[in-house]
Automatic annotation (TrEMBL):
GO biological process: methylation
Keywords: Methyltransferase, S-adenosyl-L-methionine, Transferase
UniProt-listed Pfam families: Methyltransf_11 (PF08241)
Gene3D superfamilies: Vaccinia Virus protein VP39
Name under which the protein is recorded: Methyltransferase family protein
Organism ancestry: Bacteria, Bacillati, Actinomycetota, Actinomycetes, Pseudonocardiales
Length: 247
């Protein structure tokens, strides 16, 4: 989960817990209608997923369920989990009792059998983690052979653009302050260079099929004219999108 960086403060020694329980409602309200989430990340995910009718999809880090709902509307059989119990409650309110939603931590063994899913979506999740080894192994385990993992993470250029003195090639912890629908929150991420991401995917048994830097949805220009006026090309960099195939 995420938003466009507003007031970056990069620091390797700032310890901030990503406590979504404390601002879940505010984040969910922002997520439903913001440029970065509703008109950039979510449309890009759906475009990369393509025809999902009848496919079993795990939404890893489902938050309040916006991506899950969009996938279900397109005919997918959706399952989701999130570390935040409050986010899972909000997802249940959105999706109803018939959707399998659980509180689970991606850094621990997941409560699903081997090969249970055709696709997994991990949107704005991995960039909170220093070590991707265990989480990627679990996501590979629950995917059937040939299944797809759609990953969305902070674009690795963002930290360097905001802080020229930072080392692009270092795995670096940094924090950023946000305003989610009037509620202040601080999130802490782990920056890693592009090659470290793709190396981790390969080591976990994935083949990188797509790397995407998509533009926002066309209607973003009409809905957010002031924000989009900052980008003469009609596009901006905030996240990086991958489609991986399980070997």
């Amino acid at each position: 989960m995420g938003n466009m960086p507003a007031n970056l403060e990069s620091s390797a020694d700032v310890a901030v817990e990503n406590d979504y329980d404390s601002f879940a409602e505010a984040y969910a309200a922002e997520n439903d209608s913001s440029l970065v989430n509703a008109y950039y990340a979510r449309p890009a995910i759906l475009d990369l997923a393509g025809d999902v009718a009848g496919r079993r999809i795990l939404d890893a880090g489902c938050g309040a369920g916006a991506v899950s709902a969009a996938l279900r509307d397109r005919g997918a059989v959706v399952t989701g989990f999130d570390r935040s119990a409050r986010m899972v409650e909000l997802a249940r309110q959105r999706l109803g009792a018939d959707t399998d939603l659980r509180v689970a931590d991606i850094t621990r063994p997941l409560p699903y059998p081997d090969g249970a899913f055709d696709d997994v979506v991990a949107a704005l999740v991995l960039h909170y983690l220093e070590d991707w080894t265990g989480p990627l192994a679990e996501l590979r385990r629950v995917l059937k052979p040939g299944g797809r993992l759609i990953v969305v993470v902070n674009h690795p250029i963002i930290l360097k653009m905001a802080h020229r003195e930072s080392d692009y090639f270092a795995t670096t912890k940094w924090s950023d302050e946000y305003d989610f629908n009037g509620r202040k929150a601080v999130l802490t991420y782990w920056h890693r260079p592009l090659h470290a991401m793709t190396d981790a995917f390969t080591a976990a048994g994935f083949r990188t099929a797509v790397i995407s830097e998509p533009p926002p949805a066309p209607e973003a220009h009409e809905l957010f004219p002031d924000e989009m006026a900052r980008f003469p090309s009609g596009a901006f960099l905030s996240f990086l999108f991958f489609v991986l195939e399980a070997a």
